Amino acid sequence: MSKGTNAAKTESVPVKAAKPVAKEAEFPVEVLRKDSVKLFGVTTSTFDGAMDGHEGPFSVAQAKEIIEGWKRGVVK
Questions:
Q1: Model confidence, pTM
Q2: Reduced to 3 states, what is the DSSP secondary structure of residue 46?
Q3: CA dist 14 to 9, 19, 37, Å?
Q4: How far is the CA of 26 from the CAs of 2, 11, 12, 47, 60, in angstroms?
Q5: Residue 69's closest CA among 45, 40, 27?
Q6: CB 58 within 8 A of CB 27
Q7: Could you tell me the residue ranges of all domains in the chain?
Q8: Distance between CA 28 and CA 76 in Å, rounded?
Q9: Cβ distance 33 to 25 under 8 Å?
Q10: Looking only at Cα atoms, what is the longest distance across the chain?
Q11: Of 16, 44, 52, 57, whose Cβ has the fewest other Cβ atoms within 10 Å?
Q12: What does the pLDDT look like over 33-76, one tens digit per residue?
């Protein structure tokens, strides 16, 4: 029996570059308000209440998060 080191070989594995995350389009509050029923399922008056004090631009997802939070009583 030979006494030697039993070191594991380390192989270089190429690292795949992360795909760039596409930034979601952002819109002025006025544009989102115009289509509030279609985009968020809320009236313009609900949209106005939820977005009061918020300045855009916002993505649809960001605006939806604000509106849903406002509907649950979460104010930021």
A1: 0.68
A2: helix
A3: 16, 15, 48
A4: 68, 44, 41, 17, 7
A5: 40
A6: yes
A7: 31-71
A8: 19
A9: no
A10: 84
A11: 16
A12: 999 999 999 999 999 999 999 998 999 999 999 999 999 997 65
Q: pLDDT tens-digit profile of 4-29?
A: 555 556 666 666 666 666 788 999 99
What the block records as the tokens of 40 is: 């968020």
pLDDT reported for residue 56: 83
SS3 category, 26: strand
Give the total residue count for the chain. 76
Q: Which amino acid is at 59?
A: S
Are the CB atoms for 42 and 36 separated by under 8 Å? yes
Q: Look at residue 58 and give its three-state secondary structure.
A: strand
Q: Which two tokens stand for residue 62?
A: 């960001």
Write the DSSP symbol of residue 24.
P
What H or E segment, with its residue span, contains residue 61?
helix 60-71
